[in-house]
Design brief:
The chain is 52% helix and 12% strand. It has helices at 18-29, 54-57, 76-89, 109-117, 120-123, 126-139, 141-151, 165-178, 201-218, 220-230, 236-239, 244-252, 257-282, 296-310; strands at 3-12, 32-35, 62-63, 102-105, 193-198, 284-289, 313-317.
Length: 318
């Protein structure tokens, strides 16, 4: 069953400084950090993902990083299981004193959406889905509505879209698997506040270029070579990871180093644009506009003020 909880969420596009700001906030609040970055789950993929080093993490407990090798696949459901572990071991969130708890930091929208709205795939059972789909095809929308009303009296009236057959089938699946529905599906439920960092586009692009230069200087190509020797076969997601795909192409001779650098910069810019678009349209984002010259401690204070204004986000754990 999905268990309700609360968390501080810090989102934003790649290269906006979420990692350093989350670290500063965790140290200030005595909180743990749950990474919501789909690339940080891979052990050994450190330089190309700008993963915080052990020294940078200090005494802050981290979750959601170094979970699988590049050869292994990973899913949103597996990340949610790690999220449950994080919330189960972190210091409880004290809303009165505003300390402790979990800071969820990252730019992978699917992870954040699954955490705040519930993950449909967690409840998916092909047999049960086929059952409810067949009912809809035989008897129509009204049959799904009757089934939901019988299973959970009073629920149909609270749904935001009770005439949507796909949502009704999902609701029945959730009831089959969990015994309850995510509260975020109900009409009138306020959207979960997601605090997101935002840099001016030109500054973000310059920061991305500096990051790529730093990655090559720190040994991105050597890291990719060592990982390929350790794991000859990578998962599809790891193979396409920004930075690593280009580093491997460089090792194979299909890209020159300048070409690899430029391609990483372009792909990272494209990712940042997609992330900002996603947060604008898929969340109720509370934007914190920052400047490239702002130190993490200053940004952390502004984020903390935003959190205090909106309160923690409600999350659903498997």
């Amino acid at each position: 069953m999905n268990a309700p909880s609360s968390a501080w969420i810090l989102a934003g596009a790649t290269a906006t400084g979420k990692t350093a700001v989350a670290q500063a906030l965790a140290e200030l609040l005595g909180a743990s950090i749950l990474s919501a970055d789909a690339m940080l789950v891979y052990r050994g993929m450190d330089i190309g993902t700008a993963k915080p080093t052990v020294a940078e993490r200090g005494g802050v407990p981290y979750f959601g990083i170094d979970l699988v090798t590049p050869a292994e696949s990973f899913s949103t459901g597996a990340w949610l299981a790690e999220a449950a572990r994080a919330f189960g071991t972190a210091k409880p969130l004290d809303l009165t004193r505003q300390e402790g708890g979990v800071i969820v930091a990252g730019g992978t929208g699917l992870y954040l959406k699954a955490l705040t709205d519930g993950f449909d795939g967690v409840a998916a059972d092909p047999a049960r889905r086929a059952h409810w789909q067949a009912l809809f095809e035989r008897e129509g929308l009204a049959a799904l509505q009757r089934a939901l009303a019988a299973r959970a009296p009073g629920t149909l009236e609270t749904l935001a879209d009770p005439a949507n057959p796909r949502r009704l089938i999902r609701a029945l699946e959730h009831l089959d698997a969990c015994g309850s529905l995510p509260t975020q599906w109900k009409r009138g439920t306020p959207p979960t506040p997601v605090t997101a960092l935002r840099l001016p586009r030109e500054q973000l692009h310059r920061r991305i270029e500096r990051r790529v230069e730093t990655m090559f200087r720190q040994g991105l190509v050597e890291e990719a070579r060592a990982l390929r020797q350790a794991f000859p076969e990578w998962s599809a997601t790891a193979r396409q990871a920004i930075g690593y795909a280009e580093a491997c192409a460089l090792l194979d001779g299909s890209l020159t180093q300048p070409e690899a650098r430029e391609r990483i910069v372009i792909r990272t810019r494209q990712l940042a644009k997609r992330q900002e678009t996603w947060f604008r349209h898929q969340t109720q984002a509370a934007w914190v506009d920052i400047d490239d010259s702002d130190p993490p401690a200053r940004v952390a204070q502004r984020v903390l003020e935003t959190w205090r204004h909106h309160g923690p986000a409600s999350v659903l754990l498997p």
